[in-house]
Specification:
alpha+beta, two-stranded antiparallel ribbon
């Protein structure tokens, strides 16, 4: 959930709240995978940067592409 994101971009204050079930470590596994596979990490980095630029003012569209 993102609070502080407006139609014209980020508000002065932005909050990002993430809730997970106990034992849900999927993001840690993903992080560890990227650390172990640097070429894949570079490809993922480029994708994220390209999407961030393309959807700078549209967080919902960015998230749908992710």
């Amino acid at each position: 959930m993102h609070k502080g994101y407006t139609e014209t971009g980020f508000a002065e204050k932005v909050y990002n709240l993430q809730l997970r079930r106990s034992g849900d470590n999927a993001e840690l596994y993903f992080r560890d995978y990227l650390l172990a596979h640097l070429q894949i990490a570079k490809i993922y980095e480029k994708l994220k940067r390209d999407l961030a630029k393309k959807y700078e003012q549209d967080r919902d569209a960015y998230t749908e592409q992710d």
